[in-house]
Amino acid sequence: MTRAWVVHPDIKSDPNRRDARMALEEAVSLAHALPGLEIVGSEVVPLPRPHAGALFGTGKIAELKDRFHDAEVELVLVDGPVSPVQQRNLEKEWKVKLLDRTGLILEIFSDRAATREGVLQVEMAALSYQRTRLVRAWTHLERQRGGLGFVGGPGETQIEADRRAIDEQMVRLRRQLDKVVRTRELHRKARAKVPYPIVALVGYTNAGKSTLFNRLTGAEVMAKDMLFATLDPTMRAVRLPTGADVILSDTVGFISDLPTQLVAAFRATLEEVLAADVIVHVRDISHPESEAQAEDVNAILAELGLDEETPRLELWNKLDRLDPEGAEAVALRAERDEAVFAVSALTGAGLDGFLEAVTAALGEETRQDRVRLGFGAGRRRAWLFEKGLVEAETQDEDGYLLTVKWSAADRARFDSME
Description:
Layout: E1 2-11, H1 20-32, E2 37-47, H2 58-70, E3 75-78, H3 84-94, E4 97-100, H4 101-112, H5 116-132, H6 158-193, E5 198-203, H7 209-217, E6 234-239, E7 245-250, H8 260-265, H9 267-274, E8 278-284, H10 290-304, E9 312-317, H11 324-335, E10 340-342, H12 351-361, E11 366-373, H13 378-386, E12 390-396, E13 399-407, H14 408-415
Parallel strand pairs: 1-2, 1-3, 3-4, 5-7, 5-8, 8-9, 9-10
Antiparallel strand pairs: 6-7, 11-13, 12-13
């Protein structure tokens, strides 16, 4: 286990700074999401303004150095952006390895990526991040390679060679990723032939999307009380209790200050969201910063270019974590907006009304009908059973009498088979 210390710089001059205590709590949760770390301490460090060369002032650096030495810290996690120069100077002064927020999130993503696409996207993001870190932090970067022959000139510096190597690797990865994206596009087109609408679950990391996904689909997607438990998108065909057939998509969780490299790298994964017929924004309503988290999610959706016309429903999840009075107050607030539902994905409370709203948003309200088919209509009868629309069937001398529950779209498809 690597002994780690989490530091949140609370920069007073930053007008957009978050509540320092909550930000530190999230940073510690991020650190816990990375295997092999033992968090031995965490603290908020107030800063009037960041120092260009080392982020913190000399007095604070010396104070923290003593604390890290006493606690035998090997890794310092700084919850915020740290420039390459600042990182080099702090590592040199503290004699520890240092990771900023972007580096930590990349490490978590690298550990969690399971599919080929996920791995490629993480590698792309990591290389993009590393390229910005190529400063003269190490002595080998100051060497120069000699030119060819007698007039080759001084040659390229090691830093230029490293940058070129990264650029070449990124070109290779981009080609591989393009193939994966094309494959995903083919899958999407194949799904389009099956007239199942897509319902995408989006939300802040650890909002309970995977727990909801598992409850609705019966799948066993990893669902833990941990940031970024889900990284790669998961899709399942599911029949809602209302009778509507949909494809449910579980996506990677969003987070505030998501590294720009990751927004770009995960655009292909998040394209499933752009193609969705209904967006379900899952919120952890028990979290003190639920409103701020919702704003972060909406900002990323806007950055992705999500169509404003796409129906959106908001799910206020984790009612089970609130006391009875708090849960009742949240439920009353939710009732004021027909697109908001207070639920518990863990217990299933409140999900019926939400699922009816999903069905209505899809325009797939179901109704019960009776259908008479002759013995020669075997293909149409088989289709009804294959789609799971038959609730009861009797047979007489003229053929079959079926009780079906279907949507207007199913009825239209059935009629077109005559």
